Amino acid sequence: MSTPFELAFKHMPTPAFIVESSSGKLTSYNRNFEVLFENFNAKPAATWVSLCSDATSADDWHKLNIKIQNGSIERCESLIQVGDKLINMQLELQHLGDAVLACVYNTDHMDLSAAENTLLKFALTESSAGLWIWETHSDLISCSKSIAILLGCPQGKTPRSTPEWHERVHPDDVQRLASIVDEHVANKKKYYEAEYRILKDDQEYLWVKERGRTYTRNTDGSVKKMIGFVEDISHQKALEEHLRNQATFDELTGLLTRGAALTHFKKQLGLAKRQYTPLTMAKIHLDANSRLTTLSMEARNIAIQTSARYIYKKIREADVLARVDADKLLLLLPNTSVKDAKNLLNHIINPTEDEKTSLIEGNSDPMDFCIGIATFPEDGETIDELALSANQAVEDGQAKCKQIVVN
């Protein structure tokens, strides 16, 4: 008497057959698989070698069986001998210990094919996601309507091959994308993800994320078809850039933040050590007279912003200016002696009449500035030591009511 499992296999709606792992013999097949052959007045072959036109010897089955066991092949396409015809079938293969279960989930000559092709065509034309299918042997790419919308081109003008696709990818991203896809095709990964810029018809680049995976394989394990999606991530990239800028640049003044400035400071200090050149650091207190504390928050922010922009315009291109506290800036002056630093800073605390007018309109007054100077290596050999020394000079300047103090 048949077991419930055997009855379920015999009557399952998906055409299926079972192959003995050790020999490659077809030990069983269900009714729907048998019907495929009856449509051509034929019966299923007795072995995998006689069933599959791609197999020439029992050794071909053993190689395929090993790939099925280790999970490197889950689906494949093969030309199956049905009577005197060769029919392309897509098979799903599952290792069952001493046997392999093969389910036919698509073929050129069954209703299932028409159903799947209809769904596939629907996906390619109606899906809101950017769907593509790539036939690796012919290098034919089919794109959904949404990819055409993404690229701003007619659907008939979407890329149809790898070279056409790569023509749209940003030159700086092409090699990386190609390497990622090649690695997947070489069976090193089950799926892949890649982010890159792609050119739209309006000649603007758009950031996209591509996800792809193998859809079907040949019986030798090589990739036959791949399927994937392309997603617009330009908003995400814009947010990432905004967050990076927030981490690098102060939002109020546009100057470097403490953390970002530290990297620049260390590079300049290393250069000064190697080349035996002078390096001066200046700590600038923008509210040494505590005038800004009497202003509203909005007016205080305008004052700090005005002062920072004024000072930035007065420094040289090689100098590095950062906002390190609410009302304090740190200025690094590479290859600058104390004498030259004092001359530059004197120009800052003594604005021209036009500059003074602009500063007053922005709630700023250079009379509120107090600047402490520290030099390498006299006042320290590290950035922290120099900053501490410059800060001490500022405190001394406030106590003595002096605007520029050398430590």
UniProtKB/TrEMBL annotation:
All copies of domain GGDEF, residue ranges: 277-407
Domain PAC: 192-245
Xref: Pfam families: GGDEF, PAS_3
Name of this protein: Diguanylate cyclase
Lineage: Bacteria, Pseudomonadati, Pseudomonadota, Gammaproteobacteria, Oceanospirillales
